[in-house]
Structures are given as C-alpha cells and as structure tokens.
Write a structure and sequence with these properties.
By secondary structure, the chain is mainly α. It has 19 helices and no strands. The protein binds protoporphyrin IX containing FE (HEM).
Length: 451
Amino acid sequence: MTLALSRWHAFNAWAPWTDRRGRLHPLRVGVLAALSLPPAWLALRWANDALGARPLQTAIHSTGYWAAWVFLASLLVSPAKALLGMPNLVVVRRMIGVGALCYAVLHLLLYITDQNWRLGVVATEILVRFYLTIGFVTLLGLGVLGVTSSDGWVKRLGRNWKRLHKLAYGLAAVALLHFFLQSKADVSQATVAAGVYAWAMIWRVLPAGRDRGPAALVGLAVAAGAMALVFEYAWYRFGTRIDPLRVLRGEFDLSFGLRPAGLVLALGLLAAGLVELRALAQTRFGAGLGYTVLAYLLGALAGDAAGLAMGWTLDDVAPEGQPGPVLPGPVLPGPVLPGPVLPGPVLPGPVLPGPVLDVAWFALFALLGLARYRLRTAWQRHIVDALWAGTALWPVLAMDAEGRPLGPASAAVLLTGALLLTRRLWPVSRHAAMLVVPLAALAAYQAIALL
Ligand code: HEM
C-alpha cells in the first residue's frame, strides 16, 4: 500500500500536469488539454471516416500544420511572459516545445505510413527532395532541443544551454519555409504563421524597456503585418506564375474577411490591446468590479471578431437546402454579424427571438465577470476563467465548418461548468449562483442551434 502510494507520488511529481511538488497545476492542465485536442479531434474524425477521400494525406497536413503552430507558440511564451507580466507562464514553455516535437514525430510517422513503411524510399525522398530535407532538419533540431530540455541538461550545459536553445529561432524559419513549400498555390496560412514569427522575432530585437508601451506594440503589429505582406509578395512573385499585385490588392478587399497580412496586423493590435488591458488591471480602476465585468464582456465579442477576421458567416454552419427560418434575428450577438437567418428546421421546440439570446449571451459574460470579482480563492477563479474562455471560444469553433460537432459538446461543457460554478458561487452570492445555470442553458441552446 505504502509502496503503491509512494509510486503514485513519484508519478505525480513527474507528470506534466503537476508542479514540482506533485500538485495539480491548472495552467499545465489547461495547456496539456489544449495540446491534446487537435490529435484527439483528428483521431475522432478519422474513426468516423470524416477526413475525406485521402485521410492519411489530411492527417499529414493537419499534424504538420499543428507542429508548425505549436512550435511558434513556444516562441511566443517569452513575449507573453514579459508583456503580460506573468513570469509563471514559463512553466509551460518546455511542454509546448516538446508538444511541437511530438506533433512533428507523428507527422513523420504518418508520412512513413503513407509510403507503406518502405524506409529506403523514405530516406531517399528525404535526401532528394529539398522540402523534405528541410522538414527533416527541423525535426532533428526539435529532437535536440527536446532531449536537452530536461533539468539535468539545463544544469549540465550551463550558459551554453541558452545559446543552444536560440537554435529554435533558426529552426522555426526553416519549418516555415517547409510550410510555404508544402502549401503550393495558397500560402495564406503559411503567410499568417510567418507574420506571427516576424512579430515574435522583431519583439526580441526591440531595446529592453522599449518593448512594452502601446506605441511600440502598435508599431510592432504594423511591422509584422508589413513583413507578412513582403513574404506573400515574394512567394507569388518568385515561386508562382500568379500576379503578386493581384494578391496584394486582395489584402485590401475585406468582403471575404481579412487576408493574411491584415490578419497578422489585427492579431498584433489585439495583443497590444490585451497588454493595455492587463496594465489597466494594475491601476485603481483595475481593482474594481467595473474592470472585471468589462474585461469579461469582451469575451462575448470573440465570435464576432473571429467572424470578421475569417470572413465566416453563420451560413457556413447552417445545414443547406432546408427552407424556413427557425431562429429569427441574429444568433450571434454583437454589431459585427448583421444577423443572417438560420435556414431549416434546426431545432424542435420553442423558438426564441434573437434579442433574448443576445441579452442572455452578454448577461452570461457579465455574470462570469461578477463571479470572477467576488470569488476569492485561486481555484474558484480558475474555474470561472476556464468557463469564460470556453464560452468565448465555442462560437469561434462552431463557426468553422469543421467545428460543427462541437456544438453539443460545447453545450455539455458549458452546462457542466455552470453547475460547478454554481456550487462554488453559492456560499458567496446566491443570487448570482441562481442565475448561472439558466443563462448557461440559453447559451447552450444557442450552441446547439448553430449546428
Ligand atoms: C522528416 C520530416 C518531415 C517530413 C518527411 C515531412 C513531410 C511532409 C509532407 C509529405 C507534407 C505534405 C505535402 C503534400 O502532400 O502536399 C508536409 C506538410 C507540412 N509539414 Fe512536414 N515534414 C517533416 C517535418 C516537418 C516539421 C518538423 C514541421 C514543423 C515543425 C512540418 C510542418 C509541415 C507543415 C506546416 C505542412 C503543411 C501543412 C498544410 O498543408 O497545412 N513538417 N510535410
């Protein structure tokens, strides 16, 4: 029994979701869950034959895409840590880096499977084809960084550890080149990734102390957007026969959402806004209820912002060819999506007018802000934060055509979270607690209606 217990403790101290003392670490749990979501989603779609005619190809693309983005995310930890004043973020950097390595290994294994495990052919292809050679170089580099990321290696390498790990900057550039080469004619995603990379690298060369003010961050956003424009132009000019000027003109046409460079600019401005919001939190206003509710209310607009940025509309998520409006008025609240009517008999039962859902949606966010303000222990606040982030994200996920099955899942998560929150909130404010479940139920109704 004691042996089993001490083994359990040893396992807990080693597990990625705990801190060094073996206690559950909410940030690590959240990041680990986020890192596991894409492969879980991929596996689920594969099991349900939902990956199209060539599932292996889709899986190779998907794992490559996530390897690149998770790698970039690891480069964003340092700026986020400094800009948001959250030194604690460093505890997930290693996990994110190792996550990128795992994605890249999975990506290679899928490629080898696609080649029927003829290892000789795979080796020759990697040697002969430039785009595969650089993919392999990145993978090797990620492997070296992954192996030397343990505490033992950090100690053993001393000062050289930092030098070695700066290799990540160059490797990310090589990974991005592989991304561009594999994307062929449409390099939109690769351009966004390259713009984000430019943002992270330009931030690193800004003089210390000058990298935090609003003007510097707005300048950084503009510079990263401009770099994305340069990458895009260069790709079409030198890599394809497509007229690069036509593509650049497209950047200024917003009818299909923001184009890559515009998106990079918007992301940069969003980062600047977040940093300012965080700075405001340190002031007297930041300590008040108004600030928390305001900050939480911004989450209610996440769906609209993503819709604007990506050019997604609710038509994308509505089933096609079914006549007759079921939910009149806008389903997503806010000024950005002007309220397309969902076609088809989507939901049986009562028809709720759009404005009721809008009010419920905003009220839910305001209530979460209120709960965040009233609750005192870190754990209670983590629950509210997680619920807030999940609620803000689901319209974004549900808007993406791929995210459709997430509707009921998000509804279930929303309701479970609401029940948990109600229990936690009860001793502090019964009135607020009593409102959480019905409001979350309305939002869940909306989640299912998006299907
Ligand atoms: C030995 C190593 C690697 C091999 C053999 C390899 C191979 C491939 C192949 C075959 C494709 C799909 C090409 C196509 O069918 O159009 C691809 C796409 C891709 N790979 Fe790799 N790759 C490797 C390493 C990496 C690494 C280390 C990363 C990132 C860190 C990466 C990121 C990507 C990305 C972003 C794509 C494009 C995904 C998309 O289309 O959205 N790859 N790779």
